[in-house]
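Support request, please re-run this one:
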Amino acid sequence: MTENAEPLPDSLAPGVRRREVWAWAMYDFANSGYTTVVITAVFSAYFVAEVAGNAPWATFAWTAALAVSYALVMLTAPVIGAYADARAAKKRLLLFTTFGCVTFTAGLALAGRGDVAAGVTLIILSNFFFGTGENLIAAFLPELAEGEGMGRVSGWGWSLGYFGGLVSLGASLAYVTWAQARGMPATAFVPVTMLITAAIFALAVLPTFFLLKERAVVQPGDGWPVRAAFAQLRETLRTAHRYRDLRRFLLCLVFCQAGIQTVIALAAIYAQQAMGFTTRDTLLLILVVNVTAAIGAFGFGYVQDRLGHVRTIVLTLTGWIITVLLAWAAEGPALFWVAANLVGVCLGSSQSAGRALVGYLSPPGRQAEFFGLWGLAVKFSSILGPLTYGVVTWLSGGDHRLAILITGAYFLAGLAIVAGVDAARGRAVALSVGAGGGDR
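Re-run finished. Output below.
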């Protein structure tokens, strides 16, 4: 692929080349190993079984650690987004958050049996930097894609991201299989998977920093940049009444993402505690799910541009409800495998669709600021959903089936709320306000 390659006219913004979109999507490829290996497949179950010794509060402790990290992202995301817009600093901040996530992911290798405080601290820090970087990379999307092409380009990123998760997961699975064949315990091979994940993240992210351009320009203003960022945030909240459909969709995201983040954070724990899967079984399961998730993200990117943003999200939420019911009803591995692969399709499509719709409804020139609000909604849901699951398992004496069934209520609430979103109306409002227009 060369610099002279023609852009895709139906999807990319003027002046954007395919190689730059690839470089942007490579961040999804790079950071997906963290969520796949650390949060979903390996360290979550390892924390409950080994670090916390399968204590009655172990699942709750895991979800509480995630809740703290997401709360920190919530508190900082809008201001970081506003600062990134005001100082054209998305790429610089992204470099800092990437370094933080890679460093503390490698640090997880130090958390062994009984090291609850160390494990909790490292998860909080690594996940904070991951979540902040996730917001920043998403804010580049409206600069790369035209309005109606955002779903397609977002889908490319998510689908490539799932393949990135596959690379980290596959490397970890290969090492775990080798280690278990030699009789090594989890305390010996899980720490190495943390180092593998950190190394792949650090290497795969290099194209992003070499090829992705910072198209934002420094906005004029006096005073200390952080004070200006707070002022911009206050202005966002003051004019929030203009963005009726964006507000409603962000509320929808709180509920549907509460369910999604629960599945991401507790999948391996559920598989091992409720279904009796081994570490190797769980890794293989998540690996296959990542394949179906990549297919879902890529395919639904095109479906979204044809079917429409809201209808696509309604379709994926319906799939999530069916998935939860199947997982709850599964007594053996066969039905659970069906549910898990449906999770993959729904996960890839809903994540891609949600990110694209936020970009579609955001005013030009204020994307990082509004993606900060998107991050705020997602991170709040990341507290709400997993913490609900953790509390239910603690109070019910470890009933993971009851916890997953209650998770389905969040998808039902999201489905009811998104029905009132009018994407065309919301887009018209965003374009009418624009950068420096409207109420600003």
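Residues 1-9, 435-440 have pLDDT under 50 and may be disordered. Residues 150-181 form the longest helix (32 residues).
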